[in-house]
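User: Can you predict the 3D structure of DNA lyase? Sequence below.
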Amino acid sequence: MPEMPEVEALGRFLEERLAGRAVARVYPVSVAALKTFEPPLTALEGRAFDGVARHGKFLALRADGLYLVMHLARAGWVRWSERLPTAPPRPGKGPLALRVRLAAPDGAGFDVTEAGTQKHLAVYVVTDPRDVPGIARLGPDPLAEDFTRAAFAGMLAGERRQIKGVLRDQGVLAGIGNAYSDEILHAARMSPFKLAATLSEDEVTLLYTAVRATLGEAVERARGLAPADLKEGKRSGLRVHGRTGEPCPVCGDTIREVSFSDSALQYCPTCQTGGKPLADRRLSRLLK
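Assistant: Sure. Here are the predicted structure tokens for DNA lyase:
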């Protein structure tokens, strides 16, 4: 799943290539992906792109007062091409959800795709990104200058959920998903099942520092990478997520996994849980 660092890099890549270029045609290949109907997609045609912004995991492409907003969900992506196929795409069961062809040079543009059978990709055309419900409810950006340690502590106060779930809650912090929450907790040497409200002052400081450092480093690693290289670039920088059975790069212990119905987390017992493995079941507690 693309998270904040990958979406940030993708936005910068598109901004460099879209600035000042007008939309010739927009092809809505997957009607299910389109979540708004007014303004229509065709309202983008003839308008020139003049900015790209990221809101959490959302990407907003501005074109003369309208915004093409995308949430790539778990398996969505944007594929840039200097020469798109000349024939209009046909709706079908393939991964293509949306095609945007630019006016000049002829043939350039991008496809928005989604792999797999579960379709959660979302596309919006709005006059204000805040009209998108998912953006309207976003918490602060963890790399913003005004995201202070004091603000973070205030978010955690009284929060009775496990810290893993709090970090992934887009209404608390914008842009962190399953992978980077694992990485942040490993860097902070903290169990994913620890209750947020029980964190000591020192633990809050450690976690705040880990959030900023982990995401900041990931953004820098992704900087300048082409979209086709971002997914592998993300994976290569991960220490624990997706590395079940491998040695922890810090202590050498075996990285373990807890599986849920639709996802899994990875952690290091020595670094994060005092050497105790977590029971591999939903809402598990430390094995005694």
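The first strand starts at residue 23 and ends at 28. The two ends are 34 Å apart (CA to CA).
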